[in-house]
Amino acid sequence: MKIRKSDNVLVIKGKDRGKTGKVLMAFPAENRVIVEKVGIIKRHARARGPVRQAGIIEREAPIDVSRVMLMCGKCSHPARIGYRVLEDGKKVRFCRACSEVID
What is the pTM of this model? Predict the structure, then answer.
């Protein structure tokens, strides 16, 4: 999976198409990510004593990684990602549009 935690991404499919946000969590085994303020769901919660109040809680739900594209920091466009091995042997991600190293 080419998307990691704290990447800025653009949603390209679904009801939140066009929104950008930061990846809060990534689940590589399920190919899903949680993006800040994207894919909001409502859950009805029961009170847990004085700790938590009862009511409707809104939170982000995981969305499929195929529905997001990484935003390049240099060209500020959604970018396809490639991998490159540097001279020192380190494997890094790069933007295929402008060839800028992302990591």
Answer: 0.88
Closest Cα to residue 8, out of 99, 74, 56? 74
Q: How is residue 13 annotated by DSSP?
A: S
65-97 CB burial, b ≥16 within 10 A, e <16:
bebbbbbbeeeeebbeeeeeeeeeeeeebbbee
Can you read off the two tokens belonging to residue 40? Answer: 């909001």
**Hey, which residues does 45 pair with through a beta bridge?**
55
What's the token pair of residue 7? Answer: 């990447």
Strand ranges (DSSP E) for 1-103? 8-11, 20-27, 32-35, 40-45, 55-60, 63-64, 68-71, 78-79, 81-85, 91-95
Task: Give 81-101 pLDDT, tens digit per residue.
Answer: 999 999 999 999 999 999 999
